[in-house]
Amino acid sequence: MFSYRRYLSRFFIRLGLALFTLIALGPVIWAVITSLLPLSALTSRPPDLNPLNLTLENYRLVLDSSRGLFSGLINSFIIATFTGAVGLVIGSMAAYALARLRMPGSGTILMMILATQMFPGIVIAIPLFLVMSRLHLVDTHFALVVVYLSFTLPIVIWILKGFFESVPMELERAAAVDGASPLQTFRHVVLPISLPPLFATGVFVFIESWNEFFFAIILTRINVKTAPIAIAEFSGQYQTLYGQMLASAVLASVPVVLLAIIFRKFILEGFVEGAIKA
Amino acid sequence: MATLELVHIVKKFGEVTAVNDISLRVEEGEFVTLLGPSGCGKSTILNMTAGLEDVTSGEIRINGKTVNHLGPYERDVAMVFQNYALYPHMTVEENIGFSLRLRKRPKDEIRERVRKVAEMLELEQLLHRLPRELSGGQQQRVAIGRAVIREPSIFLFDEPFSNLDAALRIKTRGEIKELHQRLGVTSIFVTHDQEEALSLSDRIAVVRLGHLEQFGTPEEVYARPASKYVARFIGTPQMDIFSGEFLRQDGLYYRIGKARIPLPASIQPPAAAVDMGVRSEFVRLGAQGFPAMVRLVQPVGPFTYVTVEWQGGGVTARVNGVSHLKPRENIRVEIDPEGVLFFDRGTEKRIDL
Amino acid sequence: MQITNDYNRRRFRMGLWFTAPAIIVLLAVLAYPIIASWVLSFLRVRFAGQGLSFQFYGFKNYTDMLSNQLFREALARSIYFTFVEVVVVVFLALIVALMLNHPLGRHAFFRVVLLVPWALAPVANAVLWKWIYNANYGILNQILVGVGLIEKNIVWLGSPLLALNMILLADIWKAVPFIALLLLAGLQNIPSYLYKAARLDGANTWQQFQHVTLPGLKTTLVISIVLQSIWALKVFDLIYVLTKGSPADSTVLLNYLSWRETFSNLDVGYGAAIANVLFVMMFLLALIYIRALRPRQTGERAG
Predict the structure, then answer these.
(1) C or N terminus of chain A, fewer CB within 10 Å?
(2) What is the pTM of this model?
(3) Contact flag C1-B54 (C-beta cutoff 8 Å)
(4) What confidence tens digit (pLDDT) does each residue in B244-282 have?
(5) Nearest to C44, CA basis, from C291, C302, C289, C262
(6) Does C293 touch chain B if contact means CB atoms closer than 8 Å?
(7) Which of B51, B55, B56 sits opposite C7 (nearest CB)?
(8) CA-to-CA distance for B46 and B40, rounded, in angstroms?
(9) For the segment A92-129, what is each residue's pLDDT rounded down to a tens digit?
(10) Chain B contact for A183, CB < 8 A?
């Protein structure tokens, strides 16, 4: 049944989707193109977009260790991985306890966890900085991992608790009847079937830690510059080297964007639903 | 093999009392069914027996020893769950052998014992499959295998057939019965299906809203139900129970509306009001008896259930084979006094007259 | 309830052990600093030699703050920023979500498109827009001049009101995807039979939107608004990279101000006071969030 109005609405929706894609991806694509062009091409007016000019020169320059991006990537990787690992271990344990192990006051603990998502980092940054400097922990990987746990641990607990609650009680009872201690039940029965959400949560923590900037500039000086800091320096110190500035941004973003795309199914299902269902 | 005693077991969930003072004793090797509708507390009783739920008050004794404080494994019980609860990430072999692996038995011993159990349950071909690759019936056998390999003192079954289709249910029923005959382990079986209970059990505990209505053999609960509730719950079709009255007029009768059912003169009717019940196999249709009209004819293969009505009452009769009666036909009804049961109308308990 | 059973007792104990590490970490890294922040705001903190000196200051940090012109302006700007961002983001995100809910938009490709801006580091986003806004070579100017909408390059980050709004634009671009995802999930939770019933009752598309879609989205919308408000108040990376507060402090928002007072001007107590104000604002928003989640779904069916 051909309906004029229907055709029109489909046209507008197609138009809207195209516009949406253009606006969402446009800036990113432009950033990538910029990073692949030499400075001369970018500073000519109009910019010289001849594909023959494409070069990886910017990336080479940016990774040159004196500019700090390479060590920044390493540092971010170390910190994000450790935060993810520690967060998962501690968080999954707490999540399981809250989901299954009859904790008294679990309701209040949960509300507190929810509330921790909702305040500015600056509130805890100042006292934490004072403590860390007293303990000579400023500019260490340890300091950042611990601080990052403060805002990622609640998320891990929140998401995993929801998942553990959905594991059928019968399964854990069967394990108990088979002679498994609570710890063995957790290790041999619950964890193995929780690998997808565990993984997804770990990826989420990794992304959040990798992208973090605020605590990074407060708690690091020279030794532990993370990728975001390196990028910010490029936009400050070397800001007229446009190609390199964007190359650094692209390079530091590629890992997390790839992770997000690969694990999109879990991210979309897990966290979005979790935010609503709370 | 062990004896099981439930001594004044009470279970409360907050304000709600799920199990209210139940006591019973299961002998060694007995197959006992906890029978009742959903929500009557039977699964709670099972879970308390298993050690998966705490007991609010009362004692659970296995072989005379109080086990309230022991966990499920220490009580030496094994359980087959309603939804099988197979470990989804483990193969059939690993599922069955899990309890042995936890106890760190040598690998050869585990393999051998699993093989024996698998053979007994016809699962040898499936040992390397994952639960999701199995049919419902196969999954259930794995669940049974997991319990059997424990060689426990008591088997517990929590409505294990409710996820199977009708034909498979009956087949598996037979297999369970054979297994019990072979292994002879004390077993507690929970179900809402009274037919299942009758065919499998040595004794049946009929549970209603947390109370024990009757604890007896299948024959006892069928032919000598303790109360109207048990009488109606057991047996297909449901027993017809009438609120009529006794009548002495050239002999003793029980009057239901316009119908009078003759009873042996030796019966002494009590002063209180009495209900009368009768099962369909004791109702005969033919040329003799009081008049009634056919209302419904339901053939079920070997029998036909014919429901007849008269002014003030109706009853269902079981007729052998195929009946040629049609609705609205007139027929006469005779009730065999052998099959008549009496219940006190107030207490609902059966009385012997 | 009495725990009479060995197994359950063990489970309870394991629960305690299992939550202990997380609780310890959170107490140390969250609870303690939050309390310390309040304490600090009542002190005057100076750097004396190698360490710090703490001097009781009463409410002076707060009164200084309230009488400070820069603070008041930053507060007003933060409120403006938050309000505009929430309205624009939720509006745009709703349109995106509706499009992605339509059969034409169901493809996985569009969901990937959504995730790309979300996954970018805020700093990377800032650098991206710094380049786009570049007065001489940035693409925004190139396009606008090329198309003929403007004659001369505009220094986007050069004039006070303009700079603030360009920062706003950059944050909106990054924020819409996640809110769109939230709203999309909310849309998908509306049972399709409600639409069918409405259609049978004769409702046209707009009416269906009014009476089925919007009520069904109520909780999700509230959550989106609250979350986006909180995130808008947290904006920092953009300011740091794009303007550092200039021109003439016209892009200083509360979060940035607090940081600058503490770590640049070294007035720790004062910075803490500003941080606490921000905290209270977000806490109130969080309360709304929690309240919105409590009486769930009962009043949300259409008709």
Answers:
(1) N
(2) 0.83
(3) yes
(4) 999 888 888 999 988 889 998 888 888 889 999 999 999
(5) C262
(6) no
(7) B51
(8) 12
(9) 999 998 888 766 666 777 767 766 766 788 888 888 88
(10) no
